[in-house]
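Backbone description:
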Amino acid sequence: HEAGWSAYVQAKRVKATDRHENRFTETVNGKDTPSNVVWTRTPELTPSLSIEKWDTASGWPNGDRDNKEDALTVNGDTDITFTITNTSKTDEAGVGAIYRAKDLKLEDSTIVGDAHVTDLKYPKDWDTLLLKPGDSVNVTGTLKNVSGEHTDRAKVSGTPLMECPVDDETPFDGSDADADKDGTPVTIDGTRYCTQPAVESATDDWNGTTVPLAQTGSA
């Protein structure tokens, strides 16, 4: 009897590539019939964050004092700015990982000296602010009680949101019922995003120093 059927191929993307081709070959009664070629592009969309720390009065980039040779001579309290940037890679449409500012965790620790940055101030819209790829936000603080050499080190971590993957065990039934099971979905601009593993930035150092007191001969 004559018989008819349809065959489908399901593939899972496992790494980024500019072009990957898929095809299959049907073999019936010893006769090979190749399918057409379907190709896909999987862009590199690795989420990332960066942080830069600078003294506010000097501005950027003059206030970016990564090395002791560039240390600021500190006189009293010093305003410090932390610039956090979403450096995630994007596809050709500019789509990539998004961070909610409220999910970011800024850490600053003193590694030389006894002074500390205190009184961190966040933007008023911190709880609703979204950082799309290329977006930045500033957090400010005050460096107090510098005596002698000072170095502190900042870093930031956050939970990226990316478009929810479609993980459908029945891909040809016309339903996407299984699409959002990897993470809690968040709708942004009409698109559903799911949480991804946390990301941590590289660290950024800032250096300062004080002018030593003149030698007067007294104890």
